[in-house]
Amino acid sequence: MESQFGIANVWIQGDFVTRAVAIILLAMSLASWVVILIKALDIIKFKKHTRAAQDFWHSEDFAAGLTKLGADPTNPFRHLALEGREATAHHRNTKAHLHDSLDVSDWVTRCLRNCIDEFTARLQSGLAILASVGSTAPFIGLFGTVWGIYHALVAIGTSGQSTIDKVAGPIGEALIMTALGLAVAIPAVLGYNALVRGNKSILGGLNSFAHDLHAYFVTGARVNAGGEQAKVLPIKKGN
């Protein structure tokens, strides 16, 4: 209750600058939590897709594998499989483009890499907001503290008294601004680190899946790198 009254006093007794700093910190906090919640839900969904992608290679043919990946248009594993299939078919059926100077391996690699890069950009969108909030919120709160202390000193100079009852309230309210800055920055930093770890795990699974897809489209079989010598796991081709 005391902290609530303190924050209320900051708003009531503060001037335009103090209130502006409080509003900025509130907006930054809301933006951070929105990004954290949305991206966390995305990571949970994509991790489910990662686990489902393991069943793709236990299918009888490519079409059955796509069925196991589901019909979610945002599934990066399904999109990667379709992109690889289209790239392979395009390379084999088209003879009048510059990409004919590339063999099918290079062409499929390029298309799969572009697909992964697009998904990576989408996966990492919003992280810049968390990084910005985590790095600037403490300084914005500190600015509010300095501004509040300045007004407390002005009040002391005007009254000519420096007793504790004259400075305790204004100084305490000013220090609340520093606490608010830290309260905004800490969740943003922790959320950023957690999301980066989650994104890294998803991208690792996607790159591994792309490696197997590349081997499948080029050689007709998936390369299983378990052990010193890679094993080739065949899967029937299907459109």
Description:
- This protein is mostly helical.
- The protein has one domain (19-92, 101-219).
- The chain has seven helices and two strands, in the order αααααααββ.
- A two-stranded antiparallel sheet has the order 1-2.
- A hairpin with a 6-residue loop joins strand 1 (221-224) and strand 2.
- Helix 2 (16-53) runs antiparallel to helix 6 (127-159), helix 4 (76-93) runs parallel beside helix 7 (164-219) and helix 5 runs antiparallel to helix 7 (164-219).
- The radius of gyration is 28 Å and the shape is rod-shaped.
- Residues 1-5 and 225-239 have low confidence and may be disordered.
Features:
239 residues, mainly alpha, 7 helices, rod-shaped, disordered N terminus, MotA_ExbB_proton_chnl, cell inner membrane, cell membrane
The main sheet orders its strands as 1-2
Overall SS class? mainly alpha
Order of helices and strands: HHHHHHHEE
**Terminal Cα span:** 65 Å
**Oligomeric state:** single chain
Largest sheet: 2 strands, antiparallel
**How many β-strands, per DSSP?**
2
Instruction: Please tell me the overall pLDDT.
Output: 79
Subunit structure: The accessory proteins ExbB and ExbD seem to form a complex with TonB.
Domain MotA/TolQ/ExbB proton channel: 100-202
Subcellular location: Cell inner membrane; Membrane
Membrane topology: Multi-pass membrane protein
